[in-house]
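Each lists chain and fold; for instance:
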Amino acid sequence: MSSDRYLINSVLRANQILESFTPQKAAYTNAELSKKLGLNKGALTRLLYTLEKTGFLERDSKSKEYRLTYRIFRIGNVYIGQVDLHREAMPQLSKLVTLCQETVHLAILNEFRVFYLDKVESPQSIRMISRIGSTSPAYCTGVGKILLAHIEEDELERFFRAVELKRYTPNTICDPIELKLNLKRIREQGYAIDDSEHEHDVRCVAAPIRDRNDSVIAAISISGPLFRMTREKMENEYVHAVKSTAKTISDRLGFLGMR
């Protein structure tokens, strides 16, 4: 195309770098990116340095790995009202709140922490308090555990190396072996429960959202106080409701599987 003469190679290469980061591979060393993209290490170093200085990447001083920063999300947030996930999810979440009368969240995984994209508040006077754009530890929240359960094995191992399993409540799972077994069970059953593991007196049940490639790209959850979110109600009503809603959203995003 004649318009290709206007293309700037350094911008194209910077775009290649940024698009290399995925939920399955969220961190790269200079050498890994050089091999993946076939770029000269000297030129790549200058690009990475520029992206770091402009705030799009950050470099871990110990591992020497580069990761995306929240600046990417802030820019993407301008578009989020138009993207398929948000557009398709929010009407379904509103229906779920009408059904269960508890607060419902939409979240993604960012650097092994839950990032809350949106929510629909419970109409109840006593309800879970949360903030859109805030983060929480993934290993002790419902949406976090469902997302951790579906990352690649090497990323899960990196999680256990990088994250301290801090105790927030008596129910927080702090033993790596126990947590691994819990995540395996979550993956098999298709939902996760936070049994007051992050906040006292709050329970949560969550399910994954999949895209047309069968990749888990987000999660939704129902959260509420213990006196309403009884184990019996979660098992008999909310597990089915959250899984059904997550499947509806996934189907609308092009997911063709049966899970």
